[in-house]
Amino acid sequence: MTTETARPSPLQRVSRILLSDYFVLYLSLAYVAALAPFYPVLLTPANISNVLSNMWPLLIVATGQTFVLAIAGIDLSQGAVIAVTSVICAMLIAVTGNEAVLGNAPIWGAVIDGDGGLLSGVTGGLAIAILAMVVAAALIGLLNGVAVAVFGMPAFMVTLVTMLVVSAFAIYLSMSENISGLPEAFIDLGKGDLVSVYFGAQEESKIPRKVIYSFVTYPMVIAIAVAVFAHYLLNRTVFGRYVFAIGSNIRNAQISGVPVRRIVVAIFVISAVCAAIASILYSARLEAGRPTLGAGTFLLDVIGATVIGGTSLFGGKAKIIWTFFGVLFFVLLSNTLNLMNLSAFQVDMVKGAVILAAALLDVLRTRITRETAR
Amino acid sequence: MNLLKTTSAAAIVAAAAAFTGTGANAANICFAFQDLETEFWVAGHMAITTTLTEAGHTVLERNANEDANKQFEQIKDCIAQGVDAIIVIPQDGESAVTIVKEAQAADVPIAVFNRPPTDTSKGIVVVADNKTIAETAVDSIVEEALASAPADKTLNAIIIVGDLGDPNAVGRKDGFYAAINKHQDRFNVVEVASKWDAATALANLEAAVTANPEVDLLFTSSDFLFPTIRSVFEPRGLWKKRGEDGHVLMAGLDGDKTACQLIKEGYVDATGVQDLYFEADAALKGVLEAIENDEAQPNVLIEDPGFALTQANLATDEMKMWGCILLAGE
């Protein structure tokens, strides 16, 4: 007996690669393979360590954005949440305060003074401050969610307004000043090592250097824990199925008995909480609470990385593993553009072009999926 | 731009010769700056890059577009690329501390140009004596204001404050008050926040002038805000030359081309001058000598004493100001 298996046509093969969960990973590997001969520094331990450390906070924010995009929404307020939670945490745990800098801020004297923040030196103060960040973020997410789910307002408009109001509030709290003097235990959350590797003296540089690179870090552990939990929630639970049902067709989901309002509210809360967790890492690595964190082109990075991963802007299609690969590719892209010594303007233009290409690819993949389903 | 480049290059030829004279072989220098919004940063950028490239060094430029996290990542990328030294114009004093720590942990010598870390004990820190420079400039207009006003009149003064996360802004503010407080009972002071942003300064200055239409004296913490001040003052009849009725006494700080032009025209009365070429020279010398001496963590604070260019010394000291040198080149 012989079995005849139809050999896939070249078009089908391309379609399979495009639809593969690992497409962006393959793309990243191909990108590295293509550039490595010209930029050998790309594969040096120091550069790999850099790429990894730049990935983790972005991965956490992008994970939250993935949930929102999965319901065909968007959360523009993540950057503002990062800013306000950064200030909230810093004003509570700073070990010192500088009146010359913060004297005009409304928090001076009430929450922070020359001896530091309210929770400075308090047992468990750091944990309480982090809890305060998460609660503040959850409340902002709740407001977004209620406005979108209950009042039926467009997510774009709601989160845009939240972004404006919350970032203004962050600036008001510290009168736009950074709050430095954070405790070492907090800074370790953004920079601390669990495993670092010694590669010996670096010979190329003029000054012999210690070459010890961080690989397993606290940010890595935190980001992977968030991503694994999010993956489980999105792909292994009823909650996740509801998310995809809403993203695919909200009317059908309502008719099928999906608790749409509750799920939408929960998604915006998840997105904001992810932003607060990322805020811990960003504030800790920069060693200050900063009311301008998450401003500028930050959202471009978050949404770009998520979309590059393959999460659909039309909703109903998202995976955390895609977001992971998207963030990896995006960080690699930024890193290599730096290695190429391009100007900041050229870097942003290239990034924009790549995001546009990813959005076009999303359209193509959606079409292929529809064609295949027929 | 070409003229600026040519003039900058000409102004620092002597310095370039001195650097090559240190004997440092061609080195890879990472030059990371927060943006190039003001004339001071543009001229500083030009001075540093031109000098280094003319001396045969490779410059890796990184523009953070005012994003402290991006600048931190760019510095880490530079370190991974194995640069021999870093010169940074940081986003603010706090991020400068983190960046210096990161570079020194990797044994890469680093110089901080003009905007000092909040902790100036680490790295090669080149900074102007902002407080003294500001005080000298403000002293000159305070004395003039008092001399021309009735003895019992309280005068209204405005200070446009920079980003107080930047120690330069704090120093300039302190210098202003040091001058004003010598005659504390004679002045009402209104503070206008700029955050080193022209749009913010415009909005806040408009509000301040609307609330306090009578202005006797104004100090801006940076010369780059003079065009903004003009756009607020001119429609209100406050933009007048010296000798004209309604002239507001004005001083700034930086010493840029616009300030030089305005002092010559009589709209501005004084400006505190940072010696840009001295500062660029000091930063470059610092890192190149560190490379030459295999010194991974050089720590030194280099202060630029600066001076004030006023209407009184304009004729003699004009060409000591970098902005006037650039203006003359045009």
Would you give an account of this structure?
- The complex is a heterodimer of chains A (374) and B (330).
- Chain A is mostly helical and 374 residues long.
- Chain A has one domain.
- Chain A is 66% helix and 4% strand.
- Chain A has a two-stranded antiparallel ribbon with strand order 1-2. Chain A has a two-stranded antiparallel sheet with strand order 3-4.
- In chain A, helix 3 runs antiparallel to helix 12, helix 3 crosses helix 14 and helix 4 packs across helix 12.
- The longest helix of chain A has 30 residues.
- Chain B has 330 residues and is α/β, with parallel strands linked by helices.
- Chain B has 2 domains: 156 residues, Response regulator (Rossmann fold); 144 residues, Rossmann fold (3-Layer(aba) Sandwich).
- In chain B, the strands form 2 sheets. Chain B has a 6-stranded parallel beta sheet with strand order 2-1-3-4-5-11, with helices on both faces. A 6-stranded mixed beta sheet of chain B has the order 7-6-8-9-10-12, with helices on both faces.
- In chain B, strand 9, helix 10 and strand 10 form a beta-alpha-beta unit.
- The interface between A and B is large, with 44 and 42 residues.
- What is the spatial order of strands in the main beta sheet of chain B? 2-1-3-4-5-11
What is the helix/strand order of chain A? HHHHHEEHHHEEHHHHHHH
Q: How many discrete domains of chain B?
A: 2
Number of strands of chain B: 12
Transmembrane segments (chain A): 23-43, 55-72, 79-97, 117-143, 155-175, 211-234, 263-282, 294-313, 320-337, 343-364
Keywords (chain A): Cell inner membrane, Cell membrane, Membrane, Transmembrane, Transmembrane helix, Transport
Protein name (chain A): Ribose transport system permease protein
GO molecular function, one term (chain A): transmembrane transporter activity
